C-alpha cells in the first residue's frame, strides 16, 4: 500500500547531523539525529547518520515555517 507518514530524513553535505540537530533543538525544534535503526542502510549509502523531522496531526504550516527558519539559521552558523 501507500504509507501515510509525515516524516522526512535528510542530511546536509559537510555538516554532521548531531551538530545540526543540536542547533535546531536550541531553537525549540525537536528532531532526531543518528542511525534511526537503519545503520546498514545509512552505512551502505556512505552516511554517518541523518536527521529526522516528524509531523503530527497538530502541526500546521506555521510549524513548518518555524522549522525552515530554524534550519536556515542553524546552517548559517555551521557553514
With helices defined by DSSP (H or I, 4 residues minimum), what is the helix count?
Answer: 3
Name the poorly predicted regions: none
Oligomer: single chain
What is the spatial order of strands in the main beta sheet? Answer: 1-3-2
Q: How many whole angstroms does the radius of gyration measure?
A: 13 Å
Largest sheet: 3 strands, antiparallel
The CA-CA distance between the termini, in Å, is 40 Å
Order of helical and strand elements: EHEHEH
Q: Which overall shape is indicated by the principal axes computed on the Cα atoms?
A: flat
Structural class: alpha+beta
| Helix share, percent | 40-55%
What average pLDDT do the residues reach? Answer: 91
Number of strands: 3
Strand content: 15-25%
Strands, helices and their partners?
Elements: E1 7-10, H1 17-26, E2 32-34, H2 39-44, E3 50-54, H3 61-78
Antiparallel strand pairs: 1-3, 2-3
Helix pairs in contact: 1-3
Amino acid at each position: 500500500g501507500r504509507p501515510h507518514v509525515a516524516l522526512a530524513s535528510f542530511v546536509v553535505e559537510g555538516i554532521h547531523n548531531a551538530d545540526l540537530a543540536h542547533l535546531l533543538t536550541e531553537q525549540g525544534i525537536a528532531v532526531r539525529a543518528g542511525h534511526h535503526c537503519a545503520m546498514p542502510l545509512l552505512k551502505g549509502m556512505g552516511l554517518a547518520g541523518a536527521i529526522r523531522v516528524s509531523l503530527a496531526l497538530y502541526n500546521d504550516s506555521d510549524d513548518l515555517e518555524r522549522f525552515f527558519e530554524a534550519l536556515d539559521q542553524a546552517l548559517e552558523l555551521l557553514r
